[in-house]
Specification:
single chain, 194 residues, mainly alpha, 2 domains, three-stranded mixed beta sheet, 48% helix
């Protein structure tokens, strides 16, 4: 069942999280040392990891929190340089100068896809705001090493394994329903103390 959690969509995942107070939003530290919830959901894989930890231990894991040092909300400078920092709140795929710089630093290879977003969040979660040069180099490395879809990308994983056919949506719904039904039984039993 833990593997089949990958078939849940974010709506189903949020139901579980809301019911058990498992965090799924990204939080940032403010300059005053307080925490504030952002409008960004955490990545599906991160939230599923929290759900699995909760199911295995009964402990609610902490939310993703980016330190104030890696956060800068507001407009992004029109011009960016390779040694400028990539900060949360300013990474925007629509920013032409940022995307042009990243393409230049990767010899035209850079794509603002899942690998880029995952990598940026890994840096920020670790409390680091890389320079664009560092980010571009790490992106190239991550892209080379990324040989198959992440498990939480159920459709792409099944497609990669050649098990996704025309009825895949029915399979997803069937597996998701089974997971949700099983979790409801488990949660109801644990609530009753059994």
């Amino acid at each position: 069942m833990l593997a089949d959690l990958n078939y849940l969509n974010m709506g189903e995942i949020k139901q579980i999280c809301k019911r058990h107070k498992i965090p799924y939003w990204i939080v940032i530290e403010t300059g005053e040392g307080k925490r504030r919830k952002t409008s960004d959901l955490d990545r599906k894989g991160v939230v599923l990891k929290r759900i699995r930890q909760f199911l295995e231990s009964g402990v609610i894991p902490k939310e993703t929190c980016f330190s104030a040092e890696v956060v800068r909300m507001g407009s992004f400078p029109k011009k960016v340089a390779a040694d400028d920092r990539l900060l949360y709140g300013q990474y925007q795929k629509k920013n032409r100068s940022m995307m042009a710089l990243l393409r230049e630093l990767t010899e035209g290879e850079f794509k603002n896809g899942a690998i880029a977003r995952i990598l940026a969040r890994e840096f920020w979660t670790a409390g680091r705001a890389p320079t664009f040069r560092e980010f571009a180099a790490e992106w190239q490395k991550a892209r080379r090493e990324h040989e198959s879809p992440n498990p939480e990308w159920a459709f792409l994983t099944d497609r990669s394994n050649k098990t996704a056919d025309a009825d895949w949506k029915k399979l997803r719904i069937k597996k998701a329903k089974k997971v949700m039904d099983t979790l409801n039984i488990v949660f109801e039993r644990s609530r009753r103390g059994g």
